[in-house]
Amino acid sequence: MASKGSKTKNAAAARREKIEELRRAEKARDRRYRIITIVSCTVIVVGLVVGGYFMIDASKEKEAKAQAVTMSTVKTGTFKGMKTWKNLGRTHVEGSVKYAMSPPAGGNHNQVWQNCNGDVYEKPIANENAVHALEHGSVWVTYTDKAPAKDVTELEKRVKQTPYSLMSPYQDQDAPIILTAWGTQLHVDSATDPRVEKFFKDYVQGKQTPEPGAACTGGKSE
What we know:
- By secondary structure, this protein is α/β, with parallel strands linked by helices.
- It folds into two domains: 1-67; 70-203, Glutaredoxin.
- 43% of the residues lie in helices and 14% in strands.
- It has a seven-stranded mixed β-sheet.
- A hairpin with a 2-residue loop joins strand 6 and strand 7.
- Keywords: Membrane, Transmembrane, Transmembrane helix.
- This is DUF3105 domain-containing protein.
- It comes from Streptomyces lonegramiae.
- InterPro entries: DUF3105 (IPR021454).
């Protein structure tokens, strides 16, 4: 027969074992909670990152679509067949720019404008500087080696008499003679085409000008 002391010891041992068992169960439960919490937080963070990425990406795509250059062609009137563009960039950039048309009728450009105070250039000029001159409201006359010499001479005379205009050779274009203003471009057959005078009248410092009255001197001269 077990003694009273032995029974007491056995009861104490049983209580300790029970306490240890409860502690182990509690620790196991805590570990499970920690794992669940970490996994949940990770899922939430990943969801936020991925969701944020798609939101940013969608926003960029929407912005890009809103800023995409669009082109239309005039169907009737004096300037029938003239091409116009919208959503042209106007940021000052370094280096070369890929334009949506040739010669360019607008877009991002060099911070230095090409002098356009009736300037006639015998050699090709940089697109990026010429576009800045267009931003100031100038008309840019360009021609290829297929343009008749008499037409080139006549156009030179007109440009030299017109502030906010400039002229230069340009081989990479679809017509012998092209008149360009900001967002606007017209192919003409000759210097005597009546549309030439009208184009100068309407587009030298015309309504299309992003920066009317800005300087056409003090820029690049060659």
